[in-house]
Amino acid sequence: NLEDIADAFKRVGLQHLADKLEKEGQWDQTLSGGEKQRLAFARILLHNPDIVVLDEATAALDPKSQVKLMELLVEREGMTVVSVGHRPELEAFHTRKIVLERRAGGAKLVRDVELIDPAYRVLWRQLRRLAKGSSRTRAIPQG
Length: 143
What we know:
Layout: H1 2-11, H2 27-30, H3 33-47, E1 51-55, H4 63-74, E2 80-84, E3 96-103, E4 106-114, H5 121-132
Parallel strand pairs: 1-2
Antiparallel strand pairs: 3-4
Helix pairs in contact: 1-3
């Protein structure tokens, strides 16, 4: 519905377009590269897929906006994010880094590094929520 779309637009920084949701136009020619990337993130939030594959999905964004949008994805439970990118800041949003090298017969795996031990993934997400003051974080009872 339009309320969900407007909320997703707000979360990705496109609130200035929310009042134009029902207008037809050549949006592929109207939106900037950064706005198109934000729109793609809004679609992800609306559809909530189990697996998201991103290819330079934040290349047209400034570093602060890149962080904001990637945080929207990593805070979602059960969502696996695979991304291709050249910005080193993206590593903060992933648990694993795979480096491939182009070769004549195809790509070759150069490096496969665990950035965060999978056992700590749940704790890592909870700490990120606490740092942001999320109401979704539950306290663990002592005793």
